[in-house]
């Protein structure tokens, strides 16, 4: 280097001399050479032929170097050096750089020709380095500039943002004002999107205020759309909606942001409403693109809105957007979630490039309906086509075993995935726990939970829900307490399960503490959570608090059902029937659960007139006679003394579950028709329905009221055939029957043979029988 300096070479000469001997360049070397350029006198090598080295003319050395040939290969022999310089820089600005080596060489050329401080060239360099995943090199270019305007700040922020370095993008934005530069309409969308990815809601709100102060919202849909995306991503969809409403000229980006935002926050109904409004507006800029339709299909799938989904599919076909792979996959996923196998099959066949998502969706639709054999066949076919399953695909298949209640097969598949060494992630373990909880095999679910997976939030929540579903309320509450102690966040399902457990146990004090937790955790806006609180307070006898919560929340049909059920179950059937009239006046339509509760209220007061009124309403509104609704009618008419009408409705039922059979047997029993109750029990067996412990309790009670001792003995012994172990209630019923029939010896023998200690009721019946004799 000293030899070169002594010879008096110019800046360009020194640089090109070194480039002629270097085959691979690094940015750090360029910076080093630029430093030496400032120490050397300026002498134009192109204008003078006197500057020579001992090994010949420097221009000849330059033109024989690899670097020169690489740069000048496209130049015409007649072009002047200045003309080539312009063309080369123009080419760099207008075309993408093919590789990082060419970028480094071009950067060196730009520095040596004195164009490094040109703002457009510098911006191009920043973007080019970013495209090769080298934002640190972009920063060096940016830092070397003496003058930085918003255009260059946007370039460096974009360099980090496009590479997923969101923290650095936000930090650069924060530095802008300190260097005398204010953000513009191009800066804000990148920074706000970075806040969304990082979950920086508070910082994003500050940016919102800053952008409003700078008046950047006027006539710029991109700025507004970025805030819609940020608020939605951070879970504040109401604020996203407010920002969306403030956008004067809404384009497809803004509409897509709000449609997807609603879906991501569990408000699929609102998402479809926005999509309908977008279609109604119908301008060129408001036409849905493939991302908008993807959000719409997700909303339809979440709501199981098959009709809306088919309409949207037709629109996609008409618009020609359905050829997009993203839309094809979204259509398949929608039909899968809606449970439409035929539509899903057609959509699956239309997908050209079947990826893992497509196969998983197709497995999912069969799993949802419990078609396990088909699920497994698709699972094997997927692997035969070279697509390896991930945790989601395996979990779909596991849910198929759970939905079909195939216990042995589910256990076998658990062993299968372990033997085949599939990737078993937290999704698979959560699915296995959910499957075993649904099977009622809590010990196996606990094995998975306590052996290495008790640090995952999903597993904790699943176990809490599993205990509640299995009727282990104390375990549910205990695990929830441990969960809170470990600092693990409970989801809505866990909270609802704990509230239900408190409701069954009458644990009003712990229920109130959960109520406080709900308020502190901002869960009170979730209607399903408030509905569970209404149920709890109602079941625990605090109807005043239940009524207060009812008026504090948004009232959907489930909220009305909760309050009506509270009054009906608490011995206030007239208030429950009054609430039904209020419900009709609001314009909400009762559902099956509402009507079943009202029929129960009519049965409590034995009001056949009010019962007929509810029955007429069911006919007028065209309600199908679902099993639960028809069973409610049977129970109501029987308790109102209309046993023949109850039997008529029972016989007209196309489908009967065990509850229906139990209600009909109990109805005959309460009317003293023991023989008829036994006949219904025999019909139940002939129809292949399996009786449970409540069935035997109902038929034994009917025998007790009718004094049918021999028949009762036979039925009591028959419980063993169905592997049903008699409970205290069954023994009490038999002792009562012997007491009514004066069979003291049989009663004493039965009490002495009991596998557990008799309660006060049984001893009382036995003592009463002895006194009578």
Automatic annotation (TrEMBL):
Give the keywords, sorted.
Repeat
Please name the Pfam families in this protein's record: PPR, PPR_2
Superkingdom of origin organism? Eukaryota
PPR repeat intervals: 149-183, 355-389, 456-490, 556-590, 657-691, 692-726
Coiled-coil spans are none
Molecular function per GO: RNA binding
Q: Which GO terms describe its biological process?
A: RNA modification
Q: Does this entry carry the keyword Repeat?
A: yes
Q: Kindly give the NCBIfam families that the UniProt entry links to this protein.
A: PPR
Q: Which PANTHER family match?
A: (WILD MALAYSIAN BANANA) HYPOTHETICAL PROTEIN (PTHR47926:SF397), PENTATRICOPEPTIDE REPEAT-CONTAINING PROTEIN (PTHR47926)
What is this protein identified as?
Pentatricopeptide repeat-containing protein, mitochondrial
Instruction: State the species of origin.
Output: Sesamum radiatum
């Amino acid at each position: 280097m000293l030899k070169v300096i002594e010879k008096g070479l110019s800046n360009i000469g020194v640089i090109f001399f070194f480039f002629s001997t270097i085959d691979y360049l690094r940015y750090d070397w360029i910076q080093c050479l630029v430093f030496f350029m400032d120490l050397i006198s300026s002498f134009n090598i192109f204008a003078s032929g006197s500057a020579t080295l001992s090994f010949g003319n420097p221009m000849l050395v330059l033109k024989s170097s690899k670097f020169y040939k690489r740069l000048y290969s496209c130049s015409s022999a007649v072009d002047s050096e200045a003309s080539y310089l312009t063309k080369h820089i123009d080419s760099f600005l207008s075309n993408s750089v093919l590789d990082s080596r060419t970028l480094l060489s071009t950067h060196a050329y730009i520095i040596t020709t004195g164009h490094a401080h040109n703002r457009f060239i510098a911006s191009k360099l920043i973007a080019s380095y970013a495209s090769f995943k080298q934002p640190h090199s972009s920063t060096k270019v940016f830092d070397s500039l003496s003058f930085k305007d918003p255009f260059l700040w946007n370039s460096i922020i974009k360099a980090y943002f496009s590479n997923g370095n969101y923290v650095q993008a936000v930090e650069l934005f924060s530095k802008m004002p300190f260097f005398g530069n204010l953000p513009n309409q191009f800066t804000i969308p990148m920074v706000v999107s970075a806040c969304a990815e990082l979950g920086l809601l508070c910082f994003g709100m500050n940016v919102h205020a800053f952008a409003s102060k700078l008046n950047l919202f006027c006539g710029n849909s991109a700025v507004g759309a970025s805030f819609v995306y940020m608020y939605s991503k951070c879970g504040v969809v109401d604020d996203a909606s407010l920002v969306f409403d403030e956008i004067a000229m809404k384009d497809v980006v803004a509409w897509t942001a709000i449609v997807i935002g609603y879906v991501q926050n569990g408000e699929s109904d609102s998402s479809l409403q926005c999509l309908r409004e977008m279609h109604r507006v119908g301008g060129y800029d408001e036409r849905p693109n493939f991302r908008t339709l993807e959000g719409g299909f997700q909303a339809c799938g979440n709501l199981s809105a098959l009709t809306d989904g088919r309409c949207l599919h037709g629109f996609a076909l008409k618009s020609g957007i359905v050829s997009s792979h993203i839309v094809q996959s979204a259509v398949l996923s929608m039909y899968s979630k809606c449970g439409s196998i035929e539509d899903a099959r057609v959509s699956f066949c239309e997908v050209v490039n079947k990826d893992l998502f497509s196969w998983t969706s197709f497995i999912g639709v069969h799993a949802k309906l419990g078609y396990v054999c088909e699920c497994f066949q698709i699972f094997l076919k997927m692997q035969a086509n070279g697509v390896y399953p991930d945790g989601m695909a395996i979990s779909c298949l596991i849910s198929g075993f759970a939905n079909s209640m195939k216990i042995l097969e589910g256990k076998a598949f658990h062993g299968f995935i372990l033997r085949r060494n599939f990737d078993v992630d937290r999704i698979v373990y959560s699915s296995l726990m959910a499957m075993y909880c649904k099977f009622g095999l809590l010990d196996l679910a606990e094995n998975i939970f306590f052996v290495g997976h008790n640090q995952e939030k999903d597993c904790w929540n699943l176990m809490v829900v599993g205990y509640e579903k299995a009727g282990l309320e104390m375990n549910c509450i205990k695990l929830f307490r441990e969960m809170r102690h470990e600092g693990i966040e409970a989801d809505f399902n866990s909270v609802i399960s704990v509230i239900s457990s408190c409701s069954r146990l009458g644990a009003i004090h712990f229920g109130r503490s959960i109520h406080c937790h709900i308020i502190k955790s901002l869960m009170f806006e979730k209607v399903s959570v408030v509905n569970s609180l209404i149920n709890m307070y109602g079941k625990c006898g605090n109807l005043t608090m239940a009524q207060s919560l009812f008026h504090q929340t948004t009232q959907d049909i489930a909220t009305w059902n909760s309050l009506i059920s509270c009054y009906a179950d608490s011995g206030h059937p007239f208030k429950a029937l009054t609430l039904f009239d209020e419900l009709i006046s609001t314009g909400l339509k009762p559902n099956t659960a509402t009507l079943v509760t009202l029929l129960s209220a009519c049965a409590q007061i034995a009001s056949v007139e009010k019962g007929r009124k509810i029955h007429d309403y069911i006919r007028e509104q065209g309600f199908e006679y679902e099993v639960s609704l028809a069973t409610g009618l049977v129970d109501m008419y029987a308790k109102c003394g209309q046993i023949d009408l109850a039997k008529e409705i029972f016989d007209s039922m196309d489908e009967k579950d065990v509850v229906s059979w139990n209600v009909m047997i109990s109805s005959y029993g309460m009317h003293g028709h023991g023989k008829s109750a036994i006949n219904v029990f025999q019909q139940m067996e002939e129809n292949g329905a399996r009786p449970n412990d409540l069935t035997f309790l109902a038929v034994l009670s009917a025998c007790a009221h009718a004094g049918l001792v021999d028949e009762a003995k036979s039925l009591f012994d028959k419980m063993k055939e169905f592997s049903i172990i008699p409970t205290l209630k069954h023994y009490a019923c038999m002792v009562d029957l012997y007491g009514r029939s004066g069979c003291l010896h049989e009663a004493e023998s039965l009490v002495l043979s009991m596998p557990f200690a008799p309660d006060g009721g049984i001893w009382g019946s036995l003592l009463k029988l002895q006194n009578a004799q």
